UniProtKB/TrEMBL annotation, chain A:
Organism the protein comes from: Ginsengibacter hankyongi
Family: Belongs to the ABC-2 integral membrane protein family.
Any one of the GO CC terms: plasma membrane
tRNA-binding listed as a keyword: no
Subcellular location: Cell membrane
Keywords linked to the UniProt accession: Cell membrane, Membrane, Transmembrane, Transmembrane helix, Transport
Gene Ontology MF terms in the entry: ABC-type transporter activity
InterPro entries in the cross-refs: ABC-2_transporter_component, ABC2_TM, ABC2_TM_bact-type
Membrane-topology descriptor: Multi-pass membrane protein
Chief subcellular location: membrane
Official protein name in the record: ABC transporter permease
Pfam families on file: ABC2_membrane_3
From TrEMBL, chain B:
GO molecular function: ATP binding; ATP hydrolysis activity
Domain ABC transporter, first and last residues per copy: 7-236
Pfam families assigned: ABC_tran (PF00005)
UniProt cross-references to CDD domains, sorted A to Z: ABC_DR_subfamily_A
Assigned keywords, A-Z: ATP-binding, Nucleotide-binding
Protein name from the UniProt record: ABC transporter ATP-binding protein
């Protein structure tokens, strides 16, 4: 045990004395939560639009006012000419133009039917779609109000309820994603680098000649990173709850338990990488390209896996982060208990054991 | 000097595929002896030493280190040897004291032992002012001397030094050898590989490896006489010229 504690103490010295390591370990999770929380958002607010009003009557004025007062749109310009629309879009300042034809109010009053044209800049398709939907909703709202006194023969009223995330906040989906990313980076890359560094400097040889068993070396290397990951999990959760307002609907204990499981999986992967690479650069490269990118791309947190082509969907199954992301989303956002996530937990446990056994085997082979 | 054997090597061979790195070598090292292991790069010195340290399993032959078998008792061997590699083997981001504490700790020494002996070692090396400084701030020569003191800190029976003085100036090398003599005087057996021939003169006995085999083994004086050479340098050149393996 004394050997072991000497070792763990030494590892902490390495970590605490290297400002870069400390920055990656403790600064990165906070930075990522803040970047994802405040800068990267797919909500559309205060989009600049233009209006081409050919009728200028009661109805169009009322509608334009309503659109302008919503928090989604700012009317930047009033156009007078249909031809100028193209030029406006090309300047890139406006995202959408609303065109009212001549005699809008007359058509509405006499024929019960009027037309509005929405022209959106679809070079960014998601934004265009969202804006068109928002504008349509405002127009429908107006229509409902003026038809209130005149009963329509049939009306179907759609009531939409957004379960688990009523405000449709982006934070709900990326907090679990950031957790996966940070744990993967901290545990896998840092452990791989710290072991390979000892190989590079030659201290590993001295350790192997000493009476410490290789398994003890490996575990002692992993312990500080496991503890620091706990700190990271806590800080990410606190930031999400108190700063971003994402609730923890499920059991906190379960959430922490699965996070530890994922941390162990990442540590095992880091050990595996360290036993097949000889330089710190190689270890870093493999961790980043081989693990970090798939974690971001294929875990489902940036891009929905259901929409991917079949080969990618199959590959996504070997990405540990995908399973962790699914679990955290279920537990944290949906408040699901263990009985509904045991399959994912089983897969993750299997992966952890597989990587661990493989890396310990590799570590021993290197000795002979 | 008594006749207790610290190391016995009997027809030891190590093959990597078709390549025979160490080819049927036999020798004995007495307790308290300074035994030099010479050879060009790629002659098989490091491979032989790795087998004796329990880092590598021999392909055939027998060997004992401190009375323990290299096949089955590597754990016991590891407890009784110290090791210093050709690469610098201290942690640059730990202080002098922390390095000593760490290595003594992994050899399972008691806190009291560590505390008392750390003071002695630091005093012997005149590192009192640097004791709490990071190792990376020390000059290379000091680091090497410290690394040696750390390698024998747990009072092993045998210490293996793998080209310990690489890149060190002649004055520091001389000081380093003084430390080796002091260690040998306390009964520690020293097994040292080198390709500095002036260092070979400092050894009690040397063995010269060429192409994985032992070409000559005797005291430096006897070897010089046998080869009719004025220095170990000449002895080595005469023997090494026969080598077939190129420099690796």
């Amino acid at each position: 045990m004394k050997q072991f504690f000497s070792f763990v103490k030494k590892e902490f010295h390495h970590i605490l004395r290297d400002p870069r390591t400390m920055l990656i370990l403790l600064g990165m999770p906070i930075a990522q939560i803040i970047i994802f929380g405040f800068a990267l958002t797919n909500e559309v607010k205060n989009s600049k639009i233009a209006v081409l009003d050919n009728s200028k009557d009661v109805a169009t004025t009322a509608l334009i006012q309503q659109i302008n007062s919503s928090r989604y749109f700012d009317i930047e310009k009033s156009l007078t000419d249909y031809k100028s629309i193209d030029a406006e879009f090309k300047t890139g300042k406006i995202k959408m133009v609303i065109v009212f034809p001549q005699g809008f109010n007359e058509d509405l009053q006499h024929f019960n039917k009027a037309q509005v044209q929405l022209i959106a800049d679809a070079s960014d398709p998601n934004v265009a779609n969202t804006l068109a939907n928002y504008a349509t909703a405002i127009i429908m709202d107006y229509q409902n109000r003026i038809t209130d006194d005149r009963k329509l023969p049939y009306t179907i009223h759609t009531e939409i309820q957004m379960l688990y995330n009523p405000q449709l906040m982006g934070a709900y989906s990326f907090v679990p994603g950031v957790m996966a990313m940070v744990l993967m980076l901290v545990c896998t890359m840092m452990t791989a680098i710290t072991i390979v560094r000892e190989k590079e400097t030659g201290t590993m040889e001295v350790l192997l000649v000493s009476p410490v068993q290789p398994l003890k070396i490996v575990i002692a290397k992993a312990v500080p990173y496991l503890l620091l990951s706990m700190v990271n999990i806590m800080s990410i959760l606190m930031l999400s709850v108190f700063v971003l307002g994402v609730p923890i609907n499920g059991s906190l204990l379960l959430l922490i338990a699965v996070s530890i499981l994922f941390t162990l999986t990442s540590l095992a992967l880091g050990l595996l990488i360290s036993s097949v690479t000889a330089s710190q650069q190689a270890a870093m490269f493999i961790s980043l390209v081989g693990l970090f990118l798939p974690t971001v791309m294929l875990s489902g947190f940036m891009f929905p896996i259901e929409n991917m082509p079949l080969p990618l969907r199959i590959i996504s199954n070997v990405v540990p982060a995908k399973w962790f992301y699914t679990i955290v989303k279920s537990v944290m956002i949906k408040g699901v208990g263990f009985s509904l996530i045991w399959k994912e937990v089983l897969v993750l446990t299997g992966m952890m054991l597989f990587f661990l056994v493989l890396s310990i085997k590799k570590f021993k082979i290197r000795l002979a | 000097m008594n006749d207790v054997k610290a190391i016995t090597v009997d027809h030891l061979t190590k093959k990597f595929g078709n390549f025979t790195a160490v080819d049927n070598i036999s020798f004995e090292v007495k307790k308290g002896e300074i035994f030099g292991f010479l050879g060009a790069n790629g002659a098989g010195k490091t491979t032989a030493m790795r087998m004796l340290c329990g880092l590598s399993i021999p392909s055939s032959g027998n060997a004992t280190v401190a009375g323990f078998d290299v096949y089955h008792q590597t754990e016991k061997i590891k407890k009784n040897i110290g090791y210093m590699s050709q690469k610098f083997s201290l942690y640059e981001d730990l202080t002098v004291k922390e390095n000593i504490r760490f290595y003594a700790g992994i050899y399972g020494k008691s806190n009291e032992f560590i505390k008392n002996k750390t003071g002695v070692v630091i005093k012997d090396l005149h590192l009192e002012k640097e004791a709490n400084k990071l190792v990376k701030s020390l000059p290379l020569g000091w680091k090497q001397k410290l690394a040696f003191s750390v390698a024998i800190f747990h009072e092993p029976e045998i210490v293996f030094l793998d080209e310990p003085t690489g890149g060190v100036d002649p004055v520091t090398r001389r000081e380093f050898w003084n430390l080796i003599y002091e260690a040998a005087a306390t009964g520690i057996t020293v097994f040292v590989t080198t390709h500095y021939m002036d260092e070979a003169e400092y050894c009690n006995r040397v063995c010269i490896m060429v192409d994985g085999r032992i070409d000559a083994m005797d005291t430096p004086q006897q070897l010089k006489k046998a080869c009719d050479a004025a220095s170990m340098d000449e002895v080595f050149l005469k023997l090494a010229r026969k080598a077939l393996r190129s420099d690796t």
